[in-house]
Inverse folding.
């Protein structure tokens, strides 16, 4: 069918394709003490069974550059994901392809960390420095990750690196508006075990000046009630039991104390939220030539304590999640893989917001089958999943993906999926309005992508354009009755379709290393079924149609310069699209200088955000900071193991 | 060779598409021509989207049948009024707009709607009425469960006194030496009308009427009618106490008639009265009901087969105004009916209309 007769071309290209980001990361991050080489499988299904899906990646170099930023800032500035953020310390939620936060799965090393009350996690309190790698999977992937993976999936990954010796690092950052953060890392990395600890302490006043367009005379004022204080610890242990077996154990504990700012059309905020979150996970991997086994257990305990002093409103919630999962990857011959697994998730919420404390037990059975041809230029994966929850009739979900190298460096891929989202506890059980009779949302996604990938010694290019079409049925909307009592109903249907283009370039010219990323997307997300005809066929509120990023990284000797331009198109403010917030384009610059003394790495850096000093809002009447700065330094110490 | 040309082409396409995206334009906003504000007409109070947006005031001109939306923004350089516009009143040529979540009252000239002053230092204000030539009362939920009436000196527009009332004070009515304050419960619950003596400016009596009274009118005979919403069960599964319509004799300040509603799920609301002040109207159980002030039992007569987020009757024409807030995130509607309940027309207003002010 294809004129390809040289397997070599394909193999080289495939290697190149999967390696582009690594090549770039390694070449640009050559000073980094930590390499990005993968030793163990950090997420079996993500690594092996996402055929045909669009996967974006934020590499370790970019993550290191954003070590003092939240995942919210990281994704907003570096990815195609739109982050709906209620100003600097308010709620920030991800939107993939026009979908909402609940329709995005957030997976930490294979564990879904979305909380059962609202179905998501606030990206503003997730620290970038606690992960080594972020992967973004676009489109429905419910058959792989279960409920919630309709619009996309955020993978937060930690990767072990054996035989590195003793490691220590410190990063200190001081920024505008009383922002300071210190990150400390310590680790022992031996041939058979690793034990590391990461700590961070972040405090910010966030009292940035803004133009108060809601006040007579439009005075410049300082933003109020947006202070944040966070402390966290991540302790990771990896033990090679045998050459084929690895056991890991992770502890993530974090406290967040923050004031919740109000919109400038409301009075000054008086609400505060104090959270503490404990996450314990353990995974056992047995990697064989024929069969790989994985067993995982996780326990999450989240305490959320909200208090509004003006109206003396207090809301205290405790959310517990138990996850256990086993899966095995079986190799059949040289060309086929089967992956089979079972997951049990138990969600408990203890809160006065409901009339009882819900306890939901969910068992999922999932499987994937992958086949490739002998020439290895055609690969197809079918994944299926069925979840069983008492009280719900859960749909059967599937994913079918295909990838093919059609001509030398030209690759096409396609993906068809059905995914779903269970109603959250808030949807089901909220005191006044919660509706226990809700049905799950159903998502259908079809997409094709074409990629051109080529890398030679000093030059690499990865260009990809994707076209997708998604429909979500039974879309849950909170709607008020005639007297203003809100409750959720499966009354809407949303159609999202669009085109996304991504271009990555890497070029070396003498001592200059250049790396550029461009993303652009045009996505229409409209309500195709609605209780009111005024909102029918209208774009969803606060959902941009355009978003684009241009990101240029230049490295010369020990200097590194990053310039990022991030454009977010206009967003309608209302469901009938009567008015909108204007689009904005931000320029951020990061400049660093590294020094290597006795094989130890020292770095000083400065970041200038919103260089063009724009006054802009992501959500109406929630101002954002204008030009602001971060300066800091980092020290990476490494004592190699004695051989 | 071929590969390079493909690369070049792809780069070209990418740069073109990138360039077009970076320069993509916002849609053009719709601009309304400026208009003079006629003083007399129907003012529609639009709360605005909850949380992040701004409320607005719409104006309906009875003669030209024209509607102007966002009067305040139009005459104040697109300034937002603030979050959750609750109510308005015109006192001595000034329009007082109570903005609940912004904890303020915006004072504008009634004739040109230009901002004059912002009264701040309030906590969850709800309604304002004039009680003396130089004095106004503002009901406010306050913080927690501390209902209050703030006394405003109209010459300075400053708060001069605070009177503690029952929880969640809402609509007020002045008669004789008294101001009757319905105490709707606010964030908790209550069952009284706080009766303030305007001479001493103290609560003279806390008259128990029924669960969570929120609206109040005076009839042709000078009697006062109060509509109690009822009270939800603690698990919100229905009403623990149903709604109640109560008649108060203002000369004795006592309840002379108490009519209980039967629904265990629907709360009655928005008590209003017709032009001749002999018939009460209110929302209940998905409909608008009427009730003669002479009846001693509930008439159970429905006039409009729909209930509204806000209800009003134009005292100059007996036209019923029903505010339909739709999804609370898009332009709301006002449906006008004649007094017997036939539809006259529909007006497109601001987001989440909750009430009317007739002048």
């Amino acid at each position: 069918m294809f004129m390809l007769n040289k397997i070599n071309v394909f193999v080289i290209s495939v290697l190149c394709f999967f390696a582009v980001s690594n090549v770039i990361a390694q070449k640009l991050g050559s000073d980094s003490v930590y390499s990005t080489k993968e030793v163990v499988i950090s997420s079996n299904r993500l690594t092996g069974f996402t055929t045909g899906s669009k996967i974006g990646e934020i590499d370790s170099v970019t993550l290191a550059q954003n070590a003092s930023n939240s995942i919210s800032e990281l994704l907003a500035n570096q990815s195609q994901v739109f982050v709906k953020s209620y100003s600097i310390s308010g709620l920030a939620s991800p939107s993939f392809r026009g979908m909402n936060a609940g329709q995005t799965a957030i997976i930490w090393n294979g564990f879904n960390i979305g909380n059962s009350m609202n179905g998501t996690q606030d990206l503003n309190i997730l620290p970038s420095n606690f992960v080594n790698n972020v992967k973004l999977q676009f489109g429905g992937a419910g058959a792989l990750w279960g409920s919630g993976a309709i619009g996309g999936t955020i993978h937060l990954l930690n990767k072990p690196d054996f035989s590195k010796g003793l490691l220590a690092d410190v990063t200190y950052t001081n920024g505008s508006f009383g922002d300071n953060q210190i990150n400390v890392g310590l680790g022992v990395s031996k041939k058979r075990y690793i034990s590391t600890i990461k700590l961070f302490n972040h405090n910010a006043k966030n009292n940035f000046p803004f133009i108060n367009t809601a006040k007579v005379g439009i005075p410049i004022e300082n933003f109020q009630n947006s202070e944040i204080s966070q402390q966290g610890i991540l302790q990771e242990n990896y033990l090679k039991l045998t050459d084929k077996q690895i056991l890991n154990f992770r502890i993530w504990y974090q406290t967040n104390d923050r004031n919740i700012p109000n919109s400038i059309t409301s009075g000054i905020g008086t609400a505060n939220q104090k959270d503490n979150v404990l996450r314990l996970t353990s995974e056992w991997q047995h990697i064989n030539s024929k069969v790989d086994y994985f067993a995982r257990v996780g326990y999450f305990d989240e305490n959320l304590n909200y208090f509004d002093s003006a109206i003396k409103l207090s809301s205290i919630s405790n959310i517990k999640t138990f996850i256990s999962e086993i899966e095995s990857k079986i190799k059949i011959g040289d060309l086929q893989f089967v992956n089979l697994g079972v997951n049990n998730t138990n969600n408990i919420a203890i809160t006065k917001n409901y009339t009882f404390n819900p306890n939901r037990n969910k068992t999922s059975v999932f499987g994937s089958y992958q086949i490739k041809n002998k020439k290895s230029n055609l690969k197809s994966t079918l994944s299926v999943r069925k979840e069983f929850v008492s009280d719900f009739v859960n749909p059967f979900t599937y994913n079918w993906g295909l990838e093919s190298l059609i001509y030398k460096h030209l690759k096409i891929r396609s993906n068809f999926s059905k995914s779903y989202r269970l109603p959250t506890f808030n949807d089901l059980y909220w005191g006044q309005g919660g509706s226990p009779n809700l049905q799950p949302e159903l998502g259908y996604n079809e997409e094709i992508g074409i990629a051109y990938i080529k890398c030679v010694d000093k030059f690499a290019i990865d260009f990809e354009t994707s076209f997708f079409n998604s429909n979500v049925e039974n879309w849950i909307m909170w709607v008020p009755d005639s007297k203003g009592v809100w409750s959720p109903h499966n009354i809407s249907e949303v159609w999202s379709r669009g085109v996304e283009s991504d271009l990555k370039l890497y070029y070396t010219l003498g001592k200059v290393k250049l790396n550029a990323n461009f993303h652009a997307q045009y996505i229409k997300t409209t309500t195709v079924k609605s209780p009111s005809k005024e909102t029918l066929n209208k774009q969803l509120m606060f959902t941009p149609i355009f978003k684009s990023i241009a990101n240029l990284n230049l490295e010369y000797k020990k200097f590194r310069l990053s310039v990022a331009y991030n454009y977010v198109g206009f967003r309608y403010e209302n469901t009938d699209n009567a008015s909108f917030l204007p689009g904005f384009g931000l320029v951020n610059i990061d400049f660093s200088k590294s020094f290597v003394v006795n094989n130890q790495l020292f770095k000083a850096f400065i970041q200038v955000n919103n260089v063009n000093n724009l006054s802009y809002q992501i959500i109406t009447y929630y101002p954002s900071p204008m030009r602001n700065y971060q300066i800091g330094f980092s020290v990476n110490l490494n004592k190699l193991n004695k051989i | 060779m071929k590969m390079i040309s493909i690369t070049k082409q792809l780069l070209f396409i990418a740069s073109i598409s990138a360039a077009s995206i970076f320069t993509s334009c916002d849609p053009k906003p719709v601009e309304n021509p400026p208009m003079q504000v006629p003083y007399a007409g129907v003012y529609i109070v639009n709360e605005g989207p909850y949380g992040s947006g701004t409320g607005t005031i719409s104006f309906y001109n009875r003669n030209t049948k024209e509607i102007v939306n966002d009067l305040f923004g139009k005459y104040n350089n697109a300034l937002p009024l603030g979050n959750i516009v609750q109510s308005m009143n015109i006192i001595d040529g000034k329009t007082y707009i109570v903005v609940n979540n912004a904890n303020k009252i915006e004072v504008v000239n009634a004739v040109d709607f230009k901002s004059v002053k912002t009264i701040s230092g309030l906590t969850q204000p709800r309604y304002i009425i004039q009680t003396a030539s130089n004095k106004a009362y503002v009901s406010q939920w306050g913080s927690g469960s501390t209902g209050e009436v703030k006394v405003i000196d109209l010459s300075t527009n400053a708060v001069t006194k605070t009177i503690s009332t029952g929880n969640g004070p809402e609509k007020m009515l002045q008669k004789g030496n008294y101001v009757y304050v319905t105490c709707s419960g606010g964030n908790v619950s209550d069952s009284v009308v706080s009766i303030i003596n305007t001479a001493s400016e103290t609560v003279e009596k806390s008259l128990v009427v029924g669960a969570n009274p929120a609206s109040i009118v005076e009839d042709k005979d000078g009697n006062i009618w109060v509509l109690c919403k009822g009270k939800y069960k603690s698990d919100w599964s229905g009403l623990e106490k149903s709604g109640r319509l109560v008649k108060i004799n203002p000369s004795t300040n006592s309840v002379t008639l108490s009519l209980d509603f039967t629904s265990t799920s629907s709360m009655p609301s928005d008590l209003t009265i017709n032009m001749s002040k002999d018939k009460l109207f209110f929302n209940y159980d998905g409909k608008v009901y009427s009730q003669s002030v002479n009846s001693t039992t509930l008439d159970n007569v429905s006039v409009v087969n729909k209930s509204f987020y806000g209800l009003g009757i134009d005292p100059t024409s007996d036209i019923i105004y029903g505010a339909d807030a739709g999804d609370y995130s898009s332009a709301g509607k006002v449906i006008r009916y004649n007094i017997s309940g036939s539809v006259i027309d529909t007006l497109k207003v601001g987001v989440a209309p909750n009430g009317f002010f007739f002048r």
Q: What stands out?
A: Chain B touches chain A through 63 residues (CB under 8 Å). The radius of gyration of chain B is 24 Å. The CA atoms of residues 336 and 352 of chain B lie 16 Å apart. Chain B has a mean pLDDT of 90.
